[in-house]
Input
Amino acid sequence: MHSDISAADTHAADLQTLNVELGERSYPIFIGKNLLSRAELLLPYIRGKQVLIVTNTTIAPLYLEQLKSTLGRLQVDEIIIPDGEQYKTLATMELIYDKLMSARHNRKTTLIALGGGVVGDMTGFAAATYQRGVDFIQIPTTLLSQVDSSVGGKTGVNHPLGKNMIGAFYQPRCVLADTTVLQTLTDRELAAGIAEVIKYGLIIDKPFYAWLLENTAALYRRDQAALIYAVYQSCANKAKVVAADEREETDHRALLNLGHTFGHAIETAQGYGQWLHGEAVATGMQLAAQLSQQLGYISQQEILQLRQLLQQANLPVVPPQDMTASQFVDLMGRDKKVIDSRLRLVLLRQIGEAFVAADVTAQQVADFLIQQGLAPH
Amino acid sequence: MHSDISAADTHAADLQTLNVELGERSYPIFIGKNLLSRAELLLPYIRGKQVLIVTNTTIAPLYLEQLKSTLGRLQVDEIIIPDGEQYKTLATMELIYDKLMSARHNRKTTLIALGGGVVGDMTGFAAATYQRGVDFIQIPTTLLSQVDSSVGGKTGVNHPLGKNMIGAFYQPRCVLADTTVLQTLTDRELAAGIAEVIKYGLIIDKPFYAWLLENTAALYRRDQAALIYAVYQSCANKAKVVAADEREETDHRALLNLGHTFGHAIETAQGYGQWLHGEAVATGMQLAAQLSQQLGYISQQEILQLRQLLQQANLPVVPPQDMTASQFVDLMGRDKKVIDSRLRLVLLRQIGEAFVAADVTAQQVADFLIQQGLAPH
Output
């Protein structure tokens, strides 16, 4: 069992700390086991006497009381929102604002997101906009949110016509990524997180990708050392990309969108919440890799290797067969990464090196999707 | 007629430019006559090919077509919202987002606020949050918004339990303060703006206050040279305060709230839209001045002088008599300037010098209000 996590062994410990360097908005990510109980990590980042914990109906019964007892004698209020991407809306934001107002939270309050990406994105946006900005702390409880939402400062909600269309860039004061809580994740949600972990290997870190070829099985059976290593490595890679382009002003940060333009089309077509984000990204990465191969970048063997890797975590690798190529392209075109009507896609020059292709036409993508078995219209 | 605007004569010209210095977020305020038609001022600040003009039902029939023809061949979309503070809500924000999405505005779009403070605050907040931040330009059409919203970067909407509780700090790319459009303002709205102009004299600029003692009548009859001077001077004073405290992290920026804590209580009690913001601020300033006098700072004569000055513009100087002292204090306590339950008020040490008093108790304020004729409960 140890042989397949040797790289993790080198790095594993009960607590890893990664500092995300963003000048005066720098913050630490604490990664490790049983962090929810460690008041000494959390309390130094709370400046006032008020805290609002935002969590959801799935997480609250599991971890809310534990967190509240860690917070001790502060004024701790809570709001429990329904679980699911379909609730990542302005309507839910209003519930958070209502709670803050009715409990009279002042400008020194701290919002704590206890949950997955949906809870994190909304809590961050609420913190960015309540009284024009208050503190917030992320405690991501899914693997996806630990590796994705911990770094980057993206907060916001969906619009009926597109994902994440309303939001702000806003950094947390600190992040607690407790790998112990991943024990209660469903296999399907864990796999969705593994998809994003694999993404970091694909776009920027070939050695990590090589480690994943050996250790994805260990991640999938929730080996703690492997999880700590994978979360650390993913966050470090994301931080590297984000530090170069905090507000998405160049192409660089777009690399993080590998698989996402295809993925968003799938999520939108199926309605939010049917496919998990990570599942859509997995299929999106597989499509992006195949298109990269067609354009002469990566090899057929690497395509198959990626497919096997994704399937080790039971991730989907083909798009929903009830989608048509033209619907797909239309939904990709509504994605915000389209600038001045030109389609921009993240592709793979090689494993471990992604790039932004700005010259792929909608027609090319449609033809490619038809080859993948989708009906034209 | 000229004798009472001599100071304005010195500065007046068809176009004044004030640069608000905020590092990489610096921007110019253009102040002058007939600016709506001057494409050469506006177009350099529009980076993409798309523009959304946000305006209201009062302003649209007067100035929308003029602005559209100035913008020429860009993709110019428009949204016309109902006029009034009661529409400064998340529900109205959704209409703006809906328009941006359905017209497929991309991340290079520019939002233009054509209207008063409500339009400016919401358009700024929409720009701050659409796709996590796009450009925006302010074209304030009321005197109040020209002197208040042009500087400071405050954007947002009201919550049913408090004004401006949801928002962001976000700077425009430029501001066009066209004094010609003030011709179509009602006297009441003009006066509301004059209240804020007087505020700048009171808090930080005694010479300007002296000028106002001579020239408020000229402002009230819409003398263009006097208006240009007053807008310039007000914005310059506000910029001076804001530059020292862009994100309201010290007490300094709080000076701008002279009259606002009292004023917000009046607005909230009466329901948004009954008293104009500037009217509530006028009464609030008068109350703050009287409290300052009671505490031994300014003289009884200066109180009377201020009252006369406000009355020159037909501004109200006594609170609504149907409010009780305890209701008043309760509503002041719900204001966001309260930190850790301590009441903070901006008072006058002397004319032209405001300060933040953190030690006034709710009981003191209640007693003071009872002396002003309000019932205790």
User: Anything to note?
Assistant: Residues 1-12, 335-341 of chain B have pLDDT under 50 and may be disordered. The interface with chain A takes residues 48-49, 90, 93-94, 97-98, 101-102, 104, 106-108, 128-133, 154, 156, 159-162, 164-169, 247-248, 334, 336, 338-340 of chain B (CB under 8 Å). The first strand of chain B starts at residue 15 and ends at 20. The CA atoms of residues 40 and 70 of chain B lie 9 Å apart.
